[in-house]
Automatic annotation (TrEMBL):
UniProt keyword Cell inner membrane, yes or no: no
Record keywords: Cell outer membrane, Membrane, Transmembrane, Transmembrane beta strand, Transport
Localization, UniProt: Cell outer membrane
Main location, first listed in the record: membrane
Cellular component GO terms held in the UniProt record: cell outer membrane; efflux pump complex
InterPro entries: OMP_efflux, TolC-like
Protein name per Swiss-Prot or TrEMBL: Outer membrane efflux protein
MF (Gene Ontology): efflux transmembrane transporter activity; porin activity
Recorded superkingdom: Bacteria
Length: 459
């Protein structure tokens, strides 16, 4: 009995250890799910970003509007029924005649009361209404093209924002590594100087200077961590993640999104005129305004409708197809005077056309400014990176020499701190120039308008 209990206890202990070990192991699948690369960041944004989803919904709404305008070219068929009763002479005569049961000796002034039930089908179609139906369909189609361009514009902007935010996060992570190195270097030096201070070979002012520099290095580390946290939160918002969603960046400083662009600003500007979604939208809005002018002018034209009606009447629901009725009519209507409403609508549409033309001029100037600024930023980042690479090498060598001279008593503590600060700043400048250069390339593609199309082709 005792051995059985021991065996049972051993099984329980073994099961507990297995469960505890499984709980302690990292969740590989979850870690992979939350590990974000640049590619997964872009695909996630294209799928989940609220602005992109709303823009695509507007496309579907515009497609439905086009189908709605096409409906007027089809006849409208309606089934109807009616139950009526009364003693009005005119209603009595009409309903009784439609029943084909008018008494021969009816008194037209006092025919009496009646009851009537009527069932039937009526159909109608607009043959011509001044071209309004055709123009409304064209307007809906142009609005669909505008919404498609808006979706491309949104994708172009949001992809650029995601990539730039991704690089900003990598830059902030690089700042953290630089700040940690600075903290570690100063702490090691402070430990060494503290030992020497206790031995009386170092001044107290040197210890205080090192502590001040250490406090500044720790402050930079805290600020870098806060910058990374803020950037990650902004990136999560762009990706459409819910609040509190956590993920980590794939540790690849060479992450990039391959883009190509012309060497000169003039060629880039010519390409932007062709590709930039905002300019496509401006053209569509001008076309929409011109169509709206024609649509308003359709109020001066006549309208022609064809209508038909087939029905049966009875006073006791005993319908007979031999007593059915039908009517057909071709109706023409022409507004000779509408209180100058049509003229006012035409004037309103023309003013909107003028606004659309001016808006296109403004957008063209803005696009050119975007292209030029993007090229200048790219050139600036390249020059900064070239200078920063040399500065990092020189700063490291300078710190190495100054540290040796300081350890030998040939340099003051202030010179050592200056050299350490120069190395930190050089590292930060290099990281900033490196990632700013990547972001500048993306900004050029965004300014030209090829970013969303490029990614779609890649996918």
């Amino acid at each position: 009995m005792e051995s059985a209990n021991l065996s049972f206890k051993s099984i329980l202990i073994l099961a507990f250890l297995i469960i505890a070990t499984c709980c302690a192991l990292p969740d590989v699948s979850r870690a992979e799910d939350h590990l974000l690369t640049l590619e997964t960041a872009i695909t996630t944004a294209l799928k989940n970003n609220p602005d992109i989803r709303m823009a695509r919904t507007l496309i579907k709404k515009a497609e439905a509007s086009v189908k709605k305008t096409e409906a007027v070219f089809w006849p409208k068929v309606t089934a109807f029924s009616e139950l009526s009763a009364g003693d009005a002479p005119s209603a009595y005569l009409f309903k009784t005649i439609d029943q084909r049961e008018l008494p021969p000796d009816v008194d037209f002034n006092d025919p009496g009361s009646f009851t009537n039930t009527e069932v039937g089908i009526m159909a109608g179609i607009s043959l011509y209404n001044g071209g309004k139906n055709r123009l409304e369909k064209q307007l809906a189609q142009k609005k669909l093209a505008d919404r498609t361009a808006l979706a491309l514009q949104t994708e172009n902007d949001r992809i650029a924002a995601v990539i730039q935010m991704f690089f900003t996060a990598l830059k902030a992570r690089e700042y953290i590594l630089i700040a940690r190195t600075s903290v570690q270097t100063v702490e090691e030096q402070l430990d060494m100087m503290t030992v020497r201070f206790r031995g009386g070979s170092v001044l107290k002012s040197d210890i205080l200077s090192l502590k001040v520099r250490l406090a500044e290095a720790k402050k930079n580390l805290v600020e870098s961590k806060n910058t990374l946290a803020t950037t990650m939160t902004a990136l999560a918002t762009l990706l459409g993640h819910t609040p509190g969603y956590s993920f980590s960046l794939y540790p690849d400083p060479d992450s990039t999104c391959m883009v190509s662009f012309p060497e000169s600003i003039d060629k880039a500007w010519a390409l932007a005129l062709e590709k930039r979604p905002e300019l496509h939208r401006a053209k569509q809005q001008i076309d929409m305004a011109r169509t709206a002018v024609s649509l308003a002018a359709s109020g001066y034209r006549p309208k022609v409708d064809l209508q038909a009606r087939w029905y049966m009447d009875s006073d006791d629901f005993s319908y007979n197809t031999s007593k059915d009725n039908y009517t057909a009519s071709l109706n023409l209507a022409w507004d000779l005077f509408d209180g100058f409403a049509t003229r006012a609508q035409i004037a309103e549409a023309r003013h909107e056309l003028e606004r659309a033309l001016e808006a296109r001029k403004k957008i063209r100037m803005q696009v050119y400014q975007d292209v030029k600024q993007a090229y200048l930023a790219h050139e600036n980042a390249q020059q900064r990176l070239h200078v920063a690479q040399s500065s990092v090498d020189m700063a490291k060598e300078s710190l190495h020499i100054v540290k040796k001279r300081y350890d030998g008593g040939a340099e003051p503590i202030t010179r050592y701190l200056e050299a350490e600060l120069d190395r930190t700043r050089a590292g930060i400048n290099k990281a900033a120039a490196f990632y700013d250069g990547k972001a500048a390339k993306i900004e050029i593609a965004r300014a030209i308008g090829t970013l969303s199309r490029l990614w779609s082709q890649e996918k």
